[in-house]
Amino acid sequence: MLVIFDCDGVLVDSETLANRILARHLRLHGVPLDEQAVMAQFKGRSAAGCVQHMQRWMSAEQAHACWQQLQTETLQALRQVQPVPGVMAVLATLRAAGRPFCVASSGDHEKMAVTLSASGIEAAFQPVRFSVTQVDKPKPAPDVFLLAAREMGVHAGPMCGGGRYPHGGAGRGGGGDAGILVRW
């Protein structure tokens, strides 16, 4: 059994911080969304998906410029991120059991490197990190999970997963974020 973790909100406690910064930058551009509204509308989206969504309120050029500004601030702020409570014990248990695991994220490799390093768990995921930037379709499409399974040498048979993807799709699940289990 291969365990595939999402990164933000599952391994590292980064979502609140990142969404706070996004909400502030959107307000600076005249978009009156608070942090809860930003979380509801942007959670689970790739960077490209966020920029596209921002175009509801501003031009493509403005959305890209806003995203670049907030990404610089976000990456700096994420250097303070902590692991999600209990994740270190889960990783230790998986290692002790000899179970392979990896991370498949909507974030890019730079963001994963920052958050995993800051949280002290980067070494556990070298070189087993996969990003939606490596596939055609972002989450909730299964492409990044299928890539992770293939690269980890696992036949991606039946999958079950957990997570909240408010934007619909096959990845939509019930209660809270969780890792994705690939069974063979």
From TrEMBL:
Gene3D superfamilies: HAD superfamily/HAD-like, Putative phosphatase, domain 2. Its cofactor is Mg(2+). It comes from the Bacteria. It holds the Pfam family Hydrolase. Keywords: Magnesium, Metal-binding. InterPro entries: Beta-PGM-like (IPR051600), HAD-like_sf (IPR036412), HAD_sf (IPR023214), PGP-like_dom2 (IPR023198). One of its GO terms (molecular function) is catalytic activity. Belongs to the HAD-like hydrolase superfamily. CbbY/CbbZ/Gph/YieH family. This is Isochorismate synthase. It comes from Simiduia agarivorans (strain DSM 21679 / JCM 13881 / BCRC 17597 / SA1). The lineage of its organism: Bacteria, Pseudomonadati, Pseudomonadota, Gammaproteobacteria, Cellvibrionales.
